[in-house]
Amino acid sequence: MIFVLPVNILQTVSHIASGNSFIDYKILFEQERSHNIELRLQIQSLQLQLAELKKMLFGGRAEKFVTANATAVSQPELFPDDKLGQIDVVKTTLVKEYQKQQTKLTVKHPGRNPLPESLRREVIELMPKEDVKGLHPVGKEITEKLEYRPGELFVKQYVRPEYIKPSNDGLNASRIIASLPAMPLEKSVAGASLLTHLLVSKFVDHLPVYRQLAIFKRQNVNINHSMVSGWIKDAMRLIEPVYDLHCWQVLNTNYLNVDETTIKVLDKDKNKPHIQDTIGCITIRNEN
Fold first, then answer.
1. What does each C-alpha distance from 5 to 13, 23, 46, 83, 125 come to in angstroms?
2. What is the mean pLDDT of each run of 10 residues along the chain (288 residues)?
3. Looking at the domain assignment, is residue 246 inside a domain?
4. Phi, psi at residue 202, to the nearest 5°?
5. Is residue 250 part of a domain?
6. Residue 147 CB: number of other CB atoms within 10 A?
7. 147, 154 Cβ separation under 8 angstroms
8. pTM above 0.85, yes or no
9. Is residue 160 located within the same domain as residue 129?
C-alpha cells in the first residue's frame, strides 16, 4: 500500500533526517490546517459541479442543456482553482446537526351519519342465551339497519341489554350480551331487504343508482352515491355462487339459441367514437 504525503510533511521528514532534530510543531500544525482547508474547498467545488451535472442530466424535460462554454460565460466559478490557496480562514464554528422527528397525523374516521329519526323503527330485543335471572342490566347496545319494504324505508333496530355477572368468589365479573344475527354486510348500515331492492331495481328494472337515491331523498334519506355503489359490489360478491351455478346450467344444456344483434357502443381504450359490437342473448331449451 502506498501513502501520498503532502510536500510540507516530506520537507519536515527530510529536515529531521539531515540532523536537525528541532521541530516547530506550531508551524507544522498551521501548515496541515491550511492544507486541509484547501482540500475541503476543492471538495465543495467538485460537489457543486456534480450537482449541476446531475441537474442537467436528470432534470425536467423543460430544462435545456447548457454547454460548457455557455456555463463559463454566464456563471463564474464559485471557487477558482488559482484562488483556493489564497483563502485564509480566520475562525471556524462547529455546527451541530439535529434531525427533527415528524409525527404522522392520523385522521379519525368521522363515522356514519345517523339514520333519520322520521323513519319508522322496528325494535327487536335480543336477550342473552345465558341465565340473567337476578342480574341488573348496566347498559344496552343498539344496532340499526336500514331496511326496505315496497314503498317504505324503515329502520330495524336491534336492542341488546348488557349484564355484568360476578364470579362465585366475587373477585371477577363477566360481560353478558346477546349476539347479533347473521347479516349480509356486517359493517354496513344496509340490511338484506335494502340490498335486494337495490340489485333488483338496478339490474332487473334498469333503474340507475342516482334515480334510486332521488327516490330515497323524498323520504328524507340522503345516502352517498359511492357508498351505495360499494354496497352493490359487495352484494354481488355474495351472490356469485348463484351466477356460477347459472353459467353451469346454461353451458350444460344440449341446445342453445344465440341472438347476435349488433349495436354501436363507445370504445374508451381506442379513443374511437363508436364501434360495432354484438350483444349475445343466450336462451336454452332442454330436450329432456
1. 11, 18, 22, 22, 91
2. 52 56 75 90 92 81 52 56 57 66 65 83 90 84 90 92 84 87 91 95 94 93 94 94 90 80 74 66 62
3. yes
4. -80, -45
5. yes
6. 21
7. yes
8. no
9. yes
